[in-house]
Protein 1
Amino acid sequence: MKVLPLFEGRSSIFIFVRMKEMKKELSKNPVAKLTMSAMFLALCMVLPLLTGQIPEIGKALSPMHIPVLICGFVCGWPYGLAVGFIAPLLRFLIFGMPPIFPTGIAMAFELAAYGAMSGILYKVFPKKIQYIYVTLIASMLGGRVIWGIVRFIIAGLSGTKFPFEAFLTGAFVSAVPGIICHIALIPLIIIAMKKAKLIANE
């Protein structure tokens, strides 16, 4: 990325134009995407601290899901998938939460699906506001289905049971506050980033 002379006494119009160029470069530069992915991964580490490390609150609000979903929109599906898969495992190593088995493993596949689906669907669908919501909701549904499948497989391998009622409760009933929060918050962030030219508009 070239150095932009923003502080050489140029006019405000010149600075505005140069900032637009910086944003355009940022949206297309692989190094910039990698840097932004690292930022989203860091947010996955930090945001759950807002819940006070209380599992019940964290499970209800799912703060770690937010940066992963946004990463898919902003950086594309490979970055979203990688950040989603790494985040819960890395957070377990650093903070001991979420528990690695079975929660952390299932969550890694769930978040990987979130990041991948949000990136793929945003690229495929028209770049209109309504499709941001479609992409988000479809990604959230897909990720929860993946979570249920992984939990079912883990239960089978460990000789325990994971009934369909447990899937509905874990994926939807207990997650209602987080679902509402994500649908209300994430599209607003994506729209703001589109206006800032940090995400492709076409």
Note: The domain at 35-195 is CATH 1.10.1760.20 (Arp2/3 complex 21 kDa subunit ARPC3).
Protein 2
Amino acid sequence: MVLEVGVVPLGKDIYDFSGRDKLGKIGEAVCQEYLKTWSCVKNIENVRNNKEYQKKDIDIVMTLNDNQEVTVEVKTDSYISGNMFYETISDDVKNEIGCFEKTEADFIFYYFINPQYRKAYVFNTEYLRDWVHKHKDEFTLKRVFNYSYCSWGYAFPLDRFEKDLEDSLTIVDLSCVEDIEEFEEEARKFWDKSKKEKSKNKKV
């Protein structure tokens, strides 16, 4: 798929960032606004609340000018480390596989929601997954502790993706997104709340 970037008049959506997974919703909103700059896109639909698409781990469906449908899974990361965490197991208690392994989306939009970075890596899901399965033994499997379960995965260097997946990876600058500062401000509220909750839990 060739990306034909150019402003298209799809209109601006009104987003609701209330409820659970606020950071994920913000990431999806930024992704939607960015995709509106692709001249090949005719329509964009957020399907996160559609049960059928939830089963497939798909967040966004976009219709191209030739009526082809392209699906996108959005992952939002607020931690800038030079790596991308590829989750293979999302919940080891429930034995749930990670979204990178589970998603049926055509593309994965991995967004670093940080005003000093403002980048997203757009992966072809099939090529990314094939690369991981081929090279994962070169890296250490890591465990991330949550409240009642652990997630497992690999921290892959972004520069390795840039080198090995050059032909299938698109790196986008999200500074072009209208009102990007407002989206980042919403995310900052989430970070502040999370920090307070973590501090409170430590004191208990």
Note: Confidence is low (pLDDT under 50) at residues 1-10, 194-204.
Protein 3
Amino acid sequence: MIRITMTSFIRLFSLILVLFTIGCVQKEDKQKKTTTRPPNAVKAPDFTLVSLEGDMFTLSDLRGNVILLNFWATWCYPCKIEIPDLNKLQEKYQDKGFDVVGITLTSGSPGQISKFAEEWGMNYKVLTDIEGKYETEKVTNNYGQATGVPISGVPTSFIIDRDGYIVKTYIGPRSEQMFYNDLKHYL
């Protein structure tokens, strides 16, 4: 017959409890770190445009961050509805490696776009043509070809994961919560 003292029993029980707890914690960590990419995900086309501050901006410079790429226009009412939500997302999640990047389409001169961005308090990167040579249209076409769905209206947005893959496409305006529901898996 095996005799177990109360002290031995408590030690054995404590050891089992510790091992069980460690196993659960490790399982949770793996679940948080593992985000599967949708089967229809495609590599986001790289591009270079100019910021409203006059700096050259290349998308691949943000590799490693989660990006919400938003095609929009100053004259587009649904785009205007979306701006406060994009501002909130940028403010809340930029510390987690998240960036909103807006590409303006047929919205006038950089000066006009800058004035609009200031009036709307846009706190994220806004890009436009380099020297007015329709580079934004080329980027729009490239994203339509890459996803197989031409961009024919604004706003149109894409979530790009940390590895540079388009994992979600939106046509039309979305709320902060709708974007976050898809973004949270990648942050």
Note: The helical segments are 6-33, 77-93, 110-119, 135-147, 176-183.
Protein 4
Amino acid sequence: MVSLDFFTSTLHGIAMKLILSTHNLTLTKAIEDHIISRLDKLAKLNRFAVNARVTLEHDRAKAPERQFSCSIRLTLPGPDLFAEDVESDLYAAMDLVAKKIKQQIRKRHNKYLARKHKQAARTKRTRQEAGL
């Protein structure tokens, strides 16, 4: 098991801690760069991300189409976001996990915006009814 702890810079000088661990897999510079590039894109969507825990696994005992797994736990204010994917290619697994986390970030953001919009619409409606 290899574990790396380091900081990557994000928007506005805020640092996000990355914890990268591997199981039965050799961590190369290319894999590390690929993960960092995916997490930088996620950090641009949510600047409040505190840390990211990425786990990469290779299991030769499983079927060939399910040998590589990647999981990401993104720590944010509020509930953490977690996604996991199993593929035949490690890079495909990393890309799909990043896509899943991106969808979760957008869903959380849209819920927040909808809540604020609902309050504004309610206020507008009460003002219109009071003016009648």
Note: Residues 7-14 have pLDDT under 50 and may be disordered.
